[in-house]
Amino acid sequence: MNETDAKVATAPPHVLNPGLKFTLELGPLAVFFLAYWKYDMFVATGALMVAVVAILIVSYLLLRRIPTMPLVTTIVVVIFGGLTLVLHDAAFIKIKVSALYLLFSGALFGGLFFNKLLLPIVFDSAFHITQEGWRKLTYRWGYFFLALAALNLIVWYVGYAWYGNSDNLWVAFKTFGILPLTVLFALAQTPLIVRYESKDAADDAL
Q1: Is pLDDT larger for residue 79 or for residue 68?
Q2: CB 107, CB 121: distance < 8 Å
């Protein structure tokens, strides 16, 4: 291996600016909400499918690799969004939210079972904490994703039980509920992250 190859091999992976990363993650949600507000659930679903694929492409062009979570999200959105459009049943795009979070939770707990911490990959080297810290954080995020999956179904049910149609309530929850809850939960993990901050790269669990 020559010197140039060695530099390429040891070069750190590209990391998106936090502000840009947040904008990219928020983009498909904004597209979905605007399309629903102007048209209907089915147009919004199609717009969401196009948006997540576009964001995945942009992420690849910026990072020169495909991030794990956006890839999984895109696959799930395309599958359930496709079922929504083909069968003309909005239930599938609503189930998608719970299915996605159950998948995330199952992957995290499955990783713990096999002694493989997946959360460092999900967070894309955003910070460095010890193995014990990663394990505790993994449990917390795993249970949080389970809670979101259940809450999505509850909101869907309440919309039908109280209003006879869950579309407006569910879209409001998806647009203005899930993201703030996720941000607040992430911020609440700051003390744990600070407590278990790794002083040695060798302590990081990858």
Answers
A1: 79
A2: no
